[in-house]
Amino acid sequence: MGNYYFSIEKSTRDSGNYIVYEWKNGVSKKIFENFGKPYGGLKEARQKIGEHLQKSGHTLNKVFEHQTIIHDRKNNPSKKGWTVEEYLIGVPEEANKKSRLIQ
User: Which pLDDT score is estimated for 40?
Assistant: First the structure.
């Protein structure tokens, strides 16, 4: 899976500008961009990954990796594996379970 993943990139923490890239064997392809959305932009970017994977014929339980990169942050987290379903929801399954318990 290391040769195929997604990156969600943002220039600064405060910007609402998100660009999603699909990476295959070291070559990137832009699949989504959204500018000026400081709230909800990251969730929407994740959902666009899910839509892209679903349109490509992947099942809801298949796992893919992504990395969120904020260019002015010193230490960006490593890649995370999410299912297509989690991408479509926009949050990881654990967070989704917690929100259901709260409701």
Answer: 83
Q: Could you tell me the two tokens for 103?
A: 């409701």
pLDDT tens-digit profile of 16-52?
A: 889 999 999 999 999 999 887 778 888 999 999 999 9
3-state secondary structure of 93: helix
Q: How far apart are CA 33 and CA 21, in angstroms?
A: 9
Q: 83-97: b or e for each residue (b if 16 or more CB lie within 10 Å)?
A: bbbbbbbbbbeeeee
> Which of 22-26, 75-79, 83-87 shows the lowest per-residue confidence on average (mean pLDDT)?
75-79
Give residue for tokens 């399954």.
Answer: 93
Phi and psi dihedrals of 40, rounded to 5? 85, -5
Q: Record the pTM.
A: 0.83
Report whether 30 contacts 8 (CB < 8 A).
no
Compute and round to an integer the Cα radius of gyration of the chain: 14
Q: Rounded to an integer, what distance in angstroms lies between the CA atom of residue 59 and that of residue 14?
A: 34
